[in-house]
Design a protein that fits this description.
The complex is a heterodimer of chains A (about 525) and B (about 650). With about 525 residues, chain A is mainly alpha-helical. Chain A has a domain at about 305-525. Chain A has helices spanning about 5-20, 30-50, 90-105, 115-135, 140-160, 165-190, 210, 235-250, 260-265, 270-295, 295-300, 305-325, 330-350, 350-385, 400-410, 420-435, 445-470, 490-505, 510-530; strands spanning about 60-70, 75-85, 205, 230, 235, 390, 475. Chain A has a 3-stranded mixed β-sheet. In chain A, strands 4-5 form a two-stranded antiparallel ribbon. In chain A, a hairpin with a 5-residue loop joins strand 1 and strand 2. The mean pLDDT of chain A is about 90. Chain B is mostly helical. In chain B, a hairpin with a 2-residue loop joins strand 1 and strand 2. The radius of gyration of chain B is 38 Å and the shape is elongated. Classes of the chains: A mainly alpha (about 525), B mainly alpha (about 650).
């Protein structure tokens, strides 16, 4: 039985982008509606895919085609495949992507500058994101991963705010640095791994699944688990893991490699911010769980305390920075740093609770941050000012807006009944339990991480107090007539997100059913494989 | 456990569902009513709550003194372990169910008068409904996780209701403070949940109560849960939010910040009492009595009528917590029960004073702070009904015999006396403090009532003050009636009535000499109050500012964290971005150097060679200018040179 669900998801937007090239730039309406149509089509494919999905089955809906096969003489055969599939890790993220990209398209209605270029880039980005979340061949993954960078760079650099060039170049350089680290490891892995299906000849494989099996490493190669090279003070496999970790941590982003995020967010137009926060950050966490942890399980165990500590630092540092932010969008960007720290903490715990919590957190943060950035965009569209202290008492003029801001803020600070709570409680329980179950993280990490909850309440409530409560007043150059409540289009994009946040906070089980088998297998696999590989320092 | 369920019919389950969900329905309905028809909400919301309260009476009679009712549905799995959401309805829960719905109904009714004409009427009733729903959630939850969920949700509704008058800066600040301090306590609660999960793998209260041994982690876990109680029940050191929370509408103060939500902490302690180790209980007793003492002292000198009541609430909650610590949850619950009525009565009574004086002020175009008791006096003549109700509820608070407060306080004092044992230990200090607290309670209650109602009228003299509509007087009257001894037992000196005996089945202490001692003690206190404090006002800045706890917290927590936040911002910009800019700058510099090398050396060499050959070329080319004369010249020159060479 052949499935083409994933290919459909990836190639529909690409085809639409190619078709768009032949449409005159003046037809702004065409681009808006065709992108929306693509998103709706993807939604339908997604629904069909979810119906087909069997949670207990692991990797499924796999499509595998030969892509590049090159005979390079004594170096063996280079083989890269078009190899995609989904499991409990990627399905939530693919679903999130389809949903958020739809909302982002609705939010893009207000873009009036070079509409053709904008929507074509958006479609390319769409394909690249879904491709990254489904690719199982490292080369293919890397291709999609890099492919995201380009449209993102232009979307910020052309449609961004005042300091857009600085922000876009910073974003580009940071991410490029991460990409280079990942590329180095990819080459090392390519040299070290062969495809077990070809017994007669040496076939180098890029398949992530092959790489995750220690028996597929060619002995005495650089990353051979049984006999890895030693580079400086450490085993080459530890180096490789660290490089991958930094590469993905930049995307996540983790403190201290996070400073591209606030700038990129502040300068990016609203829909791009939404995609950036809701989807691009998740690729960091996804890469850790899909590539870094399974391929180098012993290194993951070796560095788990380090990762956990970095997670906790991100949680608290991001929270503190959010508190000091004067720009509303910057505040929310830093709160993202804080929330993504939980993802690190959960993965580092290597308990089913923690891992499931991390995946849930990625999903939930995707919805919540999309909502928060849209909310900021609503205000920015009206006044072109995001300075927190320039507003006061908005609740009296924008009642519905305030209500949705309350939903967004309280969801983000992890109030029960919103999806963030479920994710965070699982991560807390997992991280705390880790020491007694597998001896990886100290209990104090989870306890210190609870400070993040208090900080979250502090900066959000303080913002509410300053901007929405108190007597109505506007400072700066904001015109009073620019303040009005939500329009129908804004309702259309905000209300579904609010409903989703509530639904996954009250009824988490449908999503957990999908995540749990993955979380169980993942934590079990990494622990078992990691402990079986001896580390020679 | 199928056999325990046989007692309960489908009708019972439907009733329970109605009791719990009607407040939620009220929330949704109130939230959806458009602004123009906001008056509709004043009919629907109290009606929903009335049905809910009637249902609660039925539930209570069905459950009280019977097997607990347990029902659960699967909620979600955490790491493969199923966490259920369900109802665990035992005696305490049934009692709380009754109290919450009943008082919530009265407050709804009262609010229709108090909040009439308010711009945010629908929001107000919506949040009131949501609060009631969340509170019932705490009461019924069968697992600690579910309880934590509702625990935070009542915090949220409390936030919304304290900040109801959004245009008031103080209200927004107070709401934020309340939520934040609660969050700090909740972080402790969360750590407690982690401990329990790590060691038992379940949150289910029934399953947890099956643990027979005492483990060392239980001390840590129970103290962490107690941290949540410290936040919610405003115990030391997180007690400062409750006086500020008085910025909210007065009915809200009555319902949330006196009768129900702040008592949720005491309820939690009683609910998971089995988890607590003796060491943890000692800490709880200590903190409870310290809170009671501090708040009672602060209540002595406050001028704002609502703040007096707020501090008194903290003090009474401290007594309840101390009673739990002293191993007598039944006594604590008894006091919680009686306190809910008389304190709600006092708050609603204070609300009447505030409400009618405000209206009178508007008619007379006069403005002064009606909550400041220094502006009030002699109101017994203009507000005789309120005066009577206030005195009755006040007597209950002060613990005068024949009122409900006397009996419940008696139970607590008896419990602490029993707990302190025979030998001399620090527990005697707790007992002595409890007596001091009950003495102080009499004094501040007397001072409040005397200043407001007795003597001559002060600034209110010229105001046309009239009693409020019956919709507001009714609830106060009911609460006043519920403040007499009959609530507890037919015998006015016996606290071991229907309630206490049910909850205290394994009774290890009984009524004794303490009842007489405390009755005499209270009479002494009343006379001291009458003769010494009638005409005197005590002024003390330390107590007025609640031991400067706010300032202290500002100095040691708020300010440093703000500085740290600013520092992280600076660190990001100066060091991390600075590093990035420096490396970018370094790279640009290197690029320039390389560029210079390219231009000057590489290109220079190439250009040099090029210009050399061009020079040579030009030189040789210059010979071939196409001018006949120069050709002839060069030819002649060449011939001459040639001749010279040949000839010489």
């Amino acid at each position: 039985m052949h499935h083409y669900y994933i290919s459909l998801l990836i190639f529909i937007p690409l085809l639409a982008a190619v078709a768009g090239l032949f449409v005159p730039a003046g037809a702004a309406k065409y681009f808006r509606y065709s992108t929306l149509f693509v998103n709706l089509l993807q939604c339908m494919v997604l629904i069909a895919m979810v119906m087909e999905y069997i949670p207990a089955q692991g990797m499924q809906l796999v499509e595998r085609k030969d892509w590049i096969t090159l005979n390079i003489g004594t170096w063996g055969i280079l083989k890269a495949e078009y190899f995609v599939g989904i499991d409990g890790l990627s399905l939530p993220l693919v679903a999130l992507s389809v949903f958020v990209l739809l909302i982002a398209t609705i939010s893009s209605w207000t873009i009036n500058k070079n509409v053709k270029g904008y929507f074509i880039l958006l479609l390319i980005l769409n394909a690249a994101i879904i491709g990254s979340f489904t690719a199982l061949d490292f080369l293919l993954f890397y291709l999609f991963f890099e492919f995201m960078l380009l449209p993102m760079f232009f979307l910020i650099a052309i449609w961004g705010g005042a300091r857009r060039e600085y922000a876009s170049i910073k974003f580009f350089l940071y991410t490029l640095l991460g990409s280079i680290f990942i590329l180095i490891v990819m080459i090392g892995l390519y040299i070290s791994v062969h495809d077990p299906n070809y017994s007669g000849q040496l076939v180098h494989s890029f398949s992530v699944l092959n790489m995750a099996d220690a028996s597929n490493f060619i002995s005495h190669t650089i990353l051979d688990p049984n006999n890895a090279w030693t580079i400086g003070p450490m085993n080459a496999r530890l180096w490789a893991f660290l490089l991958l970790f930094i590469g993905f941590a930049i995307k996540l982003p983790m403190v201290p490699v996070h400073t591209w995020l606030p700038d990129a967010h502040v300068e990016a137009p609203t829909p791009v911010s939404v995609i950036l926060a809701a989807l691009l950050l998740k690729i960091g966490g996804y890469g850790l769980a899909r590539i870094a942890f399974p391929i180098f399980p012993e290194a993951a165990i070796h560095f788990s305390t380090f990762i956990g500590i970095m997670g906790v630092i991100s949680i608290i540092y991001g929270g503190l920075n959010a508190m000091a932010s004067k720009d509303l969008k910057r505040l929310i960007a830093y709160s993202s740093v804080s929330h993504m720290g939980f993802v690190l903490l959960g993965f580092a715990s290597l308990t089913p609770e923690g891992v499931a919590g991390s995946v849930y957190q990625m999903f939930s943060h995707g919805i919540i941050s999309a909502m928060l950035f849209l909310l900021v965009g609503v205000l920015y569209d009206r006044t072109h000012d995001r300075t927190i202290v320039n507003y006061s008492g908005l609740s009296s003029k924008m009642k519905s807006y305030t209500a949705l801001v309350l939903v967004g803020f309280f969801a983000s600070m992890g109030l029960p009944a919103f999806s963030g709570f479920i994710a965070e409680i699982m991560i807390f329980l997992g991280a705390f339990k880790a020491n007694s179950v597998n001896g990886l993280l100290h209990e104090s990490l989870a306890i210190i991480a609870t400070l993040g909850l208090i900080l979250g309440a502090a900066y959000y409530l303080w913002t509410l107090q300053r901007m929405f409560f108190g007597p109505y007043d506007l400072k700066g150059n904001i015109a009073h007539d620019s303040i009005y409540d939500l329009t129908d289009r804004e309702y259309l994009m905000l209300v579904p997100l609010a409903i989703a946040v509530l639904f996954f906070g009250i009824f988490p089980q449908p999503m957990i059913n999908i995540i749990d088998p993955f979380a169980q297998n993942f934590s079990e696999f990494v622990l078992r494989a990691g402990k079986s590989l001896t580390l020679n320092p | 456990m199928p056999e325990t369920q046989t007692h309960y019919t489908t009708f019972f389950e439907v009733c329970l569902l109605l009791v719990v969900l009607l407040p939620l329905v009220s929330f949704v309905v109130s939230g959806r009513i458009p602004q123009r028809y906001s008056w509709v909400v004043t009919f629907t919301a109290p009606l929903f709550l009335l049905i809910s309260a009637i249902g609660a009476i039925y539930i209570f009679t069905a459950v009280w003194h019977h097997q607990p009712y347990i029902a659960r549905v699967n909620w979600f799995t955490i790491g493969g372990t199923l966490v259920s959401a369900g109802v665990y309805l035992n005696d305490i829960a049934a009692l709380m169910l009754l109290v919450v719905t009943f008082i919530s109904f009265l407050v709804h009714l009262y609010s229709t008068g108090y909040m009439a004409g308010d711009a945010g009427l629908t929001r107000y009733f919506a949040m009131l409904g949501f609060f009631t729903f969340s509170m019932l959630g705490i009461v019924l939850a069968d697992s600690l996780l579910l309880m934590f969920v509702f625990w935070e949700l009542v915090g949220f509704s409390s936030y919304m209701l304290i900040g109801h008058w959004t245009e008031k800066d103080e209200a927004a600040a107070a709401a934020k403070k309340a939520f934040l301090l609660n969050r700090i306590g909740d972080a402790g609660f969360l750590v407690g949940l982690m401990l329990i999960w790590a060691y038992t793998g379940t949150f289910d209260i029934v399953q947890l109560s099956d643990i027979n041994e005492v483990f060392s982690w239980q001390t840590a876990a129970s103290l962490c849960l107690f941290a949540g109680v410290i936040g919610k029940s405003a115990q030391f050191p997180l007690l400062t939010w409750l006086p500020d929370a008085m910025e909210g509408p007065t009915p809200v103060s009555a319902l949330i910040h006196a009768a129900t939500m702040v008592a949720a902490g005491v309820f939690l302690l009683a609910r998971v009492y089995f988890l607590f180790t003796p060491a943890a209980l000692d800490v709880i007793a200590g903190i409870g009595i310290l809170t009671a003492l501090m708040a009672a002292l602060s209540a002595l000198v406050q001028f704002d009528i609502k703040k007096i009541l707020a501090y008194s609430t903290i003090s009474q909650l401290g007594l309840m917590v101390a009673a739990i610590g002293a191993g007598a949850p039944a006594a604590a619950i008894l006091h919680l029960f009686t306190h809910a009525f008389f304190k709600a009565g006092l708050f609603l009574g204070a609300g009447i004073i505030i409400h009618v004086l405000h209206q009178a002020q508007q008619q007379a175009h006069e403005h002064f702070n009606v909550q400041d008791i220094r502006n009030l006096g002699g109101l017994r003549k203009k507000l005789p009904f309120t005066f009577c109700a206030f005195v009755i509820c006040g007597c209950a608070l002060a613990g005068i015999p024949f009122f409900s407060g006397f009996l419940s306080k008696d139970a607590i004092l008896t419990a602490i006396t029993h707990w302190k044992g025979d030998g001399f230990s620090w527990k005697w200090i707790v007992l002595a403090s409890a007596f001091i607290v009950s003495f102080l309670t009499v004094i501040y209650t007397f001072r409040m009532i005397w200043t407001v109602f007795m003597g001559e009228e002060k600034r209110t003299a010229s105001l046309p003050v009239v009693e409020p509509p019956v919709i507001m007087r009714g609830p106060v009257a009911i609460l006043a009636v519920c403040s007499v001894w009959l609530l507890v037992d037919i015998n006015p000196v016996n606290f071991e009535g229907w309630l206490f005996n049910t909850l205290h089945a394994d009774g290890n202490f009984h009524i004794g000499i303490i009842s007489i001692v405390s009755a005499l003690w209270v009479i002494l206190a009343v006379s001291v109050a009458y003769f010494m404090f009638r005409s005197k006002t005590i002024h003390d800045d330390l107590l007025l500012n609640n031991f400067y706890l706010d300032k202290l917290y500002f100095k040691i927590v708020e300010n440093p964290s703000w500085r740290l936040a600013v520092f992280t911002d600076y660190f990001d910009r100066r060091w991390i971005d600075g590093f990035i800019h420096a490396s970018a700058y370094a790279q640009v510099t290197v690029s320039h150097l390389v560029g210079w090398f390219d231009r000057a050396i590489v290109d220079g060499t190439v250009n040099g060679i090029a210009s050399l050959s061009r020079g040579v070329g030009n030189f040789t080319r210059s010979f071939q200018g196409g001018k006949i004369q120069s050709y002839i010249l060069w030819a002649i020159l060449a011939i001459i040179i040639f001749l010279i060479w040949i000839l010489f």
